[in-house]
Known about the structure:
The chain is α+β, with helices and mostly antiparallel strands. Helix content is 70%, strand content 11%. The chain contains 9 helices and 7 strands, in the order ααααααββαββααβββ.
Amino acid sequence: xxxxxxxxxxxxxxxxxxxxxxxxxxxxxxxxxxxxxxxxxxxxxxxxxxxxxxxxxxxxxxxxxxxxxxxxxxxxxxxxxxxxxxxxxxxxxxxxxxxxxxxxxxxxxxxxxxxxxxxxxxxxxxxxxxxxxxxxxxxxxxxxxxxxxxxxxxxxxxxxxxxxxxxxxxxxxxxxxxxxxxxxxxxxxxxxxxxxxxxxxxxxxxxxxxxxxxxxxxxxxxxxxxxxxxxxxxxxxxxxxxxxxxxxxxxxxxxxxxxxxxxxxxxxxxxxxxxxxxxxxxxxxxxxxxxxxxxxxxxxxxxxxxxxxxxxxxxxxxxxxxxxxxxxxxxxxxxxxxxxxxxxxxxxxxxxxxxxxxxxxxxxxxxxxxxxxxxxxxxxxxxxxxxxxxxxxxxx
Length: 396
């Protein structure tokens, strides 16, 4: 708050004039920014409209393709019906070929319908974005015409306000990144289920139907066919268990953090072809579920970084547990990186380091990163566990 005496000095008036001029400059600068927002909204609207037109064109072409494939699928189903009605007149090879053709047509039609659904959702998102962009431009235009009223706002400390806004923006951005990561994970799981177990089970159904037909005409062949189906079921079950483990390791709930990490390392070594030296020290115990899953995800993210970015041949994992802290060290012999440059880069996900740091901060712990180009990378986590122990491993 500025106080000015009746017979104030020249410097008082000069200071007040500077405040007024600075405020006017800020308002004018704000007007330019509002204008830029409106222009950007209009430009983005045109770009989004182009994408929407492209999606509409794709939907038209896709609808034609779906209609054609549906007709082919109906023909395949008709041929299967003919085989069912005159089963004994067909050779085994012809029967198998007909069933496999029908299965392929069903799978292809299913993939086309799924693509159509995704395009329709994309179209819906674009249309919603267009409405929002129009509203943004309209509000910006209205704000431009009313910006003069802020001339009354000539006092106060705007610096703290800006800092608070930046903090809120960072938290909002973090929330957006978390939501985006969740959606990407859902898409990945959906693709894995669709391309793996879902397709496999559809094929198994057709093969079981084929076995039912064989029971009447060639029962001696059923055993061999069932053996093949059994192996296919085992492979499908392995795929399902892998998906379940990626979502939530069962060993984590049943046995605790250390056994879950050991099982994860077995799968990690086989898939990444990276040698892993794992060392576990201290007394194993069960902790609160939130703490266990948070620690597991830190280890998982750290090792995933090694697999994706480090180009390492070996990684060393050390876990040390005592009554107060859970200490984790992940060290690789990879290419390393310039930490300062990566953290200053506004693009990309910064190898997930921000998310890990936020997670560690929420746990009240500390995180250290030691790296340099061509010198490998070391991640160090120290998480407090005092008061969160549920049960020592081995206790009843």
